Amino acid sequence: MKVGYARVSTIEQDTALQVRAFGAAGLDVYFEDQRSGVARRPELELLLGYLEAGDELVVYKVDRVARSLEGLLSVVRQVDAKGARFRSLTEPFDTGSLSGKLMLQMLGAFAEFERGMIRERCAAGRAAAKARGSRFGRKRRYDYAVMLELRREGFSFREIAGRVGCSHATAVKAVARVVGGLTPESIG
Question: CATH says 2-128 is which class?
């Protein structure tokens, strides 16, 4: 039996392309995880328990089944232990032969390298954006500078909170952040 496994990627967040390819390849059944490869993948675990001797685990691309060479080899070992085979629709190898297993390991190593390069580029891009003054995270709901100015004018934190429309704790924390290095306790 041909059994497919599809997983979303962080870019597409959709398995439609993979599922269409499974239909064209004549798969009997497929399992689909709707979460990133970082999280636990219950459908992959279910699929690995479902496989029997003579079955074939089919993926669209090797990187859909594992995020590292170690993870890929772990899945392939489990497939081999069941007496099944592993095949990719877009990469030319089949784990039924030694050369196919070698090719699989090379593709897994390249996929892990590529993911590492992407992670480095993203980190460099975030650092460059931060250096240019870009802010990350949620947009501030309150203007901290206004709160600091009200505090300098002698308003209490309760009065600031009432004027701005936030909680007492938020007013204290906001002034502490703007002043910098101060704790909420030290600014009264």
Answer: alpha beta
